[in-house]
Structure formats: C-alpha cells, structure tokens
Specification:
The protein is built from 9 helices and 6 strands. The chain is an alpha/beta fold. A 6-stranded parallel sheet has the order 3-2-1-4-5-6, sandwiched between helices.
C-alpha cells in the first residue's frame, strides 16, 4: 500500500481557500455511489502489459467500503476498463501513439470485453444488486466512455466514493469529471493504487486542492454507518 503524503503547502492553500480541510462531514448513503475503478485481472497479472502491482494491496479496503455501502444502502458500481472494436478506432490516438505494436496487441488481448483479463479480480467481492459498467476511456463520465452519469442521475445520486486503479489515470480522470458534473467526490487515499508513491501522492494533492475530499477507508466507513434506530414510541 502507498505511503501517503499530503504536502504542507498544498494543505495550507486548501485551508486558506475554504477554511477547513474536510469538505463533507456527512453524506446521505441513499444518494451515494461507490465507484470501484478497474480492479481487474488484467491489471493484477504479473507481466501483463498494464500491470499495476500495488493494486492487489487495496483489495481488503475496497471490500470493506463495499460492505459498508451495502449495509447503509449506498450503491456499489464496479467499473471495468474495456476495449471494443469501435473504441480501437474512436480512441486511436491512445492505442496508436502511446503503445508499441506488441504492447498494443497485448492490451487488446487483455481488455477486450469478454477476455479473461477484462474480468474483475476474483478477490473483489461483488453481490447481487451491485451495478456493473464497462468504460471505454480513462474517465467514466467523459463522452464516449459509458452511460454511468445518466444512470446515477436517474437514481438521485449526488455523491461518489472513488476507489481502484490507477490512482493518477482512471481514478483521477473519473473524479475530476464527477466534480465538474456537480457530484460530491470522496477520493480514498488507501483505497486507490498506482505504480509509485510519487504518482499516487501527486494525484492526492491535486484532488485535495480542487476536486475532492481526500479520505481514508476508516473515514468512509464511518460516514456510512447507518443511523441508529429510534427507540420504540419516540
């Protein structure tokens, strides 16, 4: 798991701007979705073209948050990095410019919908009632990626919790767009992972300054605790 470092100067800028560090001291679980980004076999297979080895270390925290969401009545959404014949062409700059030919073919063989690498990692706990989304860009909300925004709006969701990988690519892209679509965003510092602490912490500092409430798994599970039932007769 990453060693988290929020830089003192960034913390001070955030405090001067908004007068507090934590943005959301309470959330409504019924209006909250936990977006589990790209926790797939293809990202956690040693030697795979897009291997993110630290991602396996956050699985227990993601499962804790998912369980707390189910208990509180929040929605879990399992988002999967996906490639289709259409996206090969409509996002040709990514596939054609940023990968060598052999790595590109490896990505196709891993993340085409239906390939073994596209599947969620078997240690990620999924239950009936959870939502599944295939996304075809880094950010889940950007045009051409998925229909998640419309589905969440139809459910009255106004808050999203971000976990998964990679911190600085798909998680960050999803969080940035979510904030600009007016969602409250909670970005989980020990529930996201990427290649290095350096990359991870750059994103956390960017998130805290402008886009999200940077929180821990303990913070999130605390916010998701169901309200105690009122005593009989009150």
């Amino acid at each position: 798991m990453h060693l988290v470092k929020l830089e003192d100067d960034i913390v001070q800028i955030a405090l001067q701007r908004r007068g507090r560090l934590r943005l959301f001291e309470a959330i409504d679980p019924k209006r909250t979705a936990h977006l589990v980004i790209d926790m797939q076999v293809g990202f956690m297979t040693p030697g795979a073209p897009a291997e993110i080895a630290p991602a396996a270390t956050i699985i227990p925290n993601i499962n804790r948050i998912s369980a707390a969401c189910r208990e509180a009545g929040a929605l879990n959404v399992f988002v999967q990095n996906s490639i289709s014949e259409e996206s090969k062409h409509s996002w040709s700059n990514w596939f054609g410019s940023f990968w060598t030919p052999d790595k590109r073919e490896g990505m196709y063989a891993t993340f085409m919908v239906g390939k073994p690498g596209h599947a969620l990692h078997p240690d990620i706990k999924v239950e009936e009632g959870d939502m599944h989304i295939n996304k075809f860009r880094f950010g889940t909300f950007v045009d051409g990626s998925s229909d998640l925004h419309g589905r969440l709006q139809a459910l009255g969701i106004d808050t999203v919790i971000i976990t998964g990988c990679a911190t600085n690519i798909c998680c960050e892209s999803t969080a940035r767009d979510a904030m600009m679509l007016n969602y409250k965003v909670l970005f989980v510092s020990d529930g996201t992972a990427t290649h290095t602490d350096y990359e991870h912490n750059i994103t956390l500092n960017n998130m805290m300054l402008t886009f999200a409430d940077v929180v821990t798994t303990d913070d999130v599970t605390g916010l998701l605790q169901p309200e105690p039932a009122s005593p009989a007769g009150t």
